[in-house]
TrEMBL record:
Keywords: Fertilization, Membrane, Transmembrane, Transmembrane helix. The gene is Lhfpl2. The lineage of its organism: Eukaryota, Metazoa, Chordata, Craniata, Vertebrata. It is a multi-pass membrane protein. Coiled coil: none annotated. This is LHPL2 protein. It comes from the Eukaryota.
Length: 228
């Protein structure tokens, strides 16, 4: 018989697992990993804009995508063109970024699989006498290691020609040059930290769903068990 077991700790773990997976996925797809050096306004920009109040535009560069402003058009968000600069995997600017893409993609796929499974832990807590929470926690730990490897390798690619064109000639491996880090990089780091927190917290979720109070509710014949 299926028992729906919802506890505060198991629900929190499920929500965190989903949030972490989406955060890493959004960061990976974003082009805001590097914010390039400011490009001065042209005379056409000044004429079509609102005058001297306009700030120089700073293009952004991601692992495989970029955002740049189309020249000779009015300065507005509609003039910013974002999309992949690499049509295939081999065209990614750096071998280090290719490795980063692989490690992040593997880690994100694991996190998405765990997030999907976590939704069903309310009904099924074990498979073949193995706790789903413990298995998912182990997978989240493995995913976190893949994410760390990707984030460590990513700055090694700052010396590629693509990054230099955005960050200036002083850019090199682990040196930003004229660039600054964008929100996507910080989101990826935050998501990695939360991944390990989820891995640890999965043990608490397992303890909560197998506690004596839950067993008492099951023995009383209840199918829906909600505990704080």
């Amino acid at each position: 018989m299926c028992h729906v077991i919802v506890t505060c700790r198991s629900m929190l773990w499920t929500l965190l697992s989903i949030v972490v997976a989406f955060a890493e996925l959004i960061a990976f797809m974003s082009a805001d990993w590097l914010i390039g050096k400011a490009k001065p306004l042209t005379s056409e920009d000044m004429d079509s804009g609102t005058g001297g109040s306009q700030e120089p535009y700073r293009p952004t560069l991601g692992i495989y995508g970029r955002c740049t402003r189309i020249s000779h058009m009015q300065i507005s968000r509609r003039d910013t063109l974002c999309g992949p600069y690499a049509e295939n995997f081999n065209e990614i600017a750096s071998g280090f970024w290719q490795a980063t893409a692989i490690f992040l993609a593997v880690g994100i796929m694991i996190l998405c699989a765990v997030a999907f499974v976590s939704v069903f832990t309310m009904c099924v807590q074990s498979i073949m006498k193995k706790s789903i929470f413990n298995v998912c926690g182990l997978l989240q730990g493995i995913a976190g290691l893949f994410l760390i490897l990707g984030l460590i390798l990513y700055p090694a690619g700052w010396g590629c020609q693509k990054a230099i064109s955005y960050c200036g000639h002083y850019a090199s491996a682990y040196k930003l040059g004229d660039c600054s880090l964008g929100w996507a990089f910080y989101t990826a780091i935050g998501g990695t930290v939360l991944t390990f927190i989820c891995a640890v917290f999965s043990a608490q979720a397992e303890i909560a769903t197998s506690s004596d109070k839950v067993q008492e509710e099951i023995e009383e014949g209840k199918n829906l068990i909600c505990l704080l």
